[in-house]
Fold:
Amino acid sequence: MNDSHDTSGFRSNEEGTLDPRDADTLLTQTKEKAVRELEVNSMLLSLLGGVIIMVGFGIIWMSVRHQHPYQGPTPGAIGLFYVLVLVIDVAAIAVYRRSSRGVRGRRSRDSWIIGAVGATGLVAVFMVMGALDYAGVSHSVVYGIYPATVPLVFGGLIGALGAASREDWTLFVSALLVSLVCASAAYGGPAGAWFISGLGSAVVLFGCAGVKLYQRRTR
Structure:
């Protein structure tokens, strides 16, 4: 971390360096501070993600729930949804950059690898969606079940990998639950999949934030 620390209370030897015991204490304090900041950021990001997913998917569900036959979300609903997604993406990047500031070595490399895999995977997900449309697959799949479930299933798995690399086991379990909830939502039909994925993922993320708040208060 790049945060400055007050070392005036620590002993120095004749060469002007910290005593080994004080250096170890300072390192421990730095790590504890980094963990606390990461927990707060992760909790806030979970809350923000839950709100955005619930609102975004809810808007799309309201635009398709009475469609017979199913045609897909309206352009306005899709546009608003992507604006919300952009908000959470910007917030997630900001949290990542702040939590990884000054971090080097294996953890930093793993974060970049996971980010690259996630970005490539999401592009591939929507490329397959375009291929399904080109192949003449029904709108209920291409613009309903598939986009309402598959991106979040994949995103949850990537989120779980990222959480595991940071040893954030609460977020790890929550990300896996998001993947399972969204996979189950496929059985809800083209309109129901939006509702189940949105509400189910939001409940999981709100629960994750609540657990983190409880852990923070009891630590």
Remarks:
- The first helix runs from residue 20 to 64.
- The mean pLDDT is 80.
- The radius of gyration is 21 Å.
- The helical segments are 20-64, 75-99, 106-134, 139-165, 169-185, 189-218.
